[in-house]
Predict the structure of Gamma-glutamyl-gamma-aminobutyrate hydrolase family protein.
Amino acid sequence: MARPVIAVPARFSASASALRYRAEVAASALVEAIFEAGGEPVVIHPAIAADDEVRARLAVADGVLLPGGGDLAARWYGQADHPSLYDVDQVQDTFDLAVARVAIDGGVPLLSICRGTQVVNVARGGDLIQDMPVPHRHLIHEVGGQTVSCYHHQALGRLGKDLEVTARAADGTVEAIRLSGRFGWYRGVQWHPEDTGSPLFAELVDAAAAHAG
């Protein structure tokens, strides 16, 4: 049986070993997790485009994984940039936001991780805490009865439309969200499930297989 195709927007990298040019990359731990769960990870090129064009490009995918990465520009949620922001890229932001809108509007199964979850919140009209008082960098902690691995200095602020909190850290930071039941399958986590292993990848692949019919 064919593996469900899981689209993973690439991340820009200034360089990569053995390549002579700026690179577009995906974390091997993420693509391996998708593959081991039974999916076919396909890394897609970020480009500024209208939602209709992004929708056409995602037509090949049965599911989407929005990965971690640098910070979103604060203008997307009506604020001025904090000095702590890093690796902000207009093309990356524009594309990721469009992917989030298109996947959710089309009921395409979507898993978002760290930055990806922040993208979804902003795409739904929410905002971010640009620099947490105590960042969750290199932090292993308990969330909802499980041990998770976090690396982020930003957090979700005001929740976007139809988003619900499903887990918080001990300090109150939102660590997991979902959409209300009338939407398709969506899970968003602020932690990195690829670090510790997680059933989320299998759940994404199963939902993608059902979506593909």
User: Anything to note?
Assistant: The radius of gyration is 16 Å. The first helix runs from residue 28 to 36.
